[in-house]
Write a structure and sequence with these properties.
It is a single chain. This protein is mainly beta. The protein has a single domain, classed as Double-stranded beta-helix. The protein contains 4 helices and 19 strands. The strands form 4 sheets. A 6-stranded antiparallel sheet has the order 5-6-3-10-13-8, with no helix packed on it. A 6-stranded antiparallel sheet has the order 11-12-9-16-19-14, covered by helices on one side. It has a 4-stranded antiparallel sheet with strand order 1-2-7-4, with no helix packed on it. Strand 1 and strand 2 form a beta hairpin.
Length: 227
């Protein structure tokens, strides 16, 4: 499979498939395709599997697109301003992503939900109990909000991150939450009560413009219905 990412901060990944090659995505994820691409929709893993995926931000149904003859083209566009990041995963290699991050992947990639182990991280970590875990072999594309900063954490190195700015991390990174210290910091610091703790070793991808933050800025400017 050949692919290219275009569109700047409103990106789209355009994939060239050869006969027999397939990609899968959530329901409604495709932007355009040539007429030699076959579409097949199913609820992978049955109702329970679809329900669990919905908890991680994806749809109940997944769609597989397969090239039937000659070379075909299919495109998947991001749902918000930001970046599309590709991961070329080896067999057994995994990446853990925020909810709603998955865009599309080769059929050989396994998408599953990922539970945070600690109750505190689940309740206050900003993404609920469930993240997404993608395991190779294969190429997978994920959406990240705004610009991306990639950081390599040494063993024991700790990075404190404002809620929502964690886009993805390798499984070796320890994920937890901590309380902001100081009464005035909590009330007036603007960071809320909790921060996310990421402890190495491993790789972390941080996003500069979480869509939740954008929504909070827009809400005050929305027209209100008058009684």
């Amino acid at each position: 499979m050949q692919y290219r990412i275009e569109g700047g901060n409103l990106p789209v990944v355009i994939c060239q498939l050869e006969p027999g090659e397939s990609l899968f995505t959530e329901s409604g994820g495709m932007a355009w395709m040539t007429d030699n691409i076959k579409m097949e929709t199913n609820m992978e893993g049955g109702f329970l599997g679809g329900l669990m995926r919905s908890f991680s931000g994806e749809s109940l149904f997944m769609v597989t697109y397969s090239c039937q003859r000659s070379s075909g083209e299919i495109a998947f566009a991001s749902s918000a301003p930001g970046n599309i990041v590709e991961f070329n995963l080896a067999a057994g290699e995994s990446i853990i992503c925020q909810k709603n991050a998955f865009l599309c992947a080769e059929r050989s990639v396994n998408l599953e939900i990922y539970f945070k182990k600690k109750l505190g991280a689940g309740l206050f970590g900003g993404e609920g109990f469930i993240l997404q875990k993608l395991t190779g072999p294969g190429t997978v594309f994920v959406e990240m909000d705004g610009s991306i900063v990639k950081k390599e954490l040494a063993s024991g190195e700790l990075l404190k991150v404002d809620t929502g700015h964690v886009a993805a991390f390798t499984p070796s990174v320890h994920y937890d939450i901590s309380t902001v210290k100081g009464f005035k910091n909590i009330l007036f610091g603007g960071e809320g009560l909790f921060l996310t703790d990421l402890r190495g070793p491993g790789t972390v991808w941080l996003q500069t413009m979480p869509i939740e933050n954008v929504a909070k800025r827009i809400i005050p400017f929305l027209p209100h219905k008058k009684d």
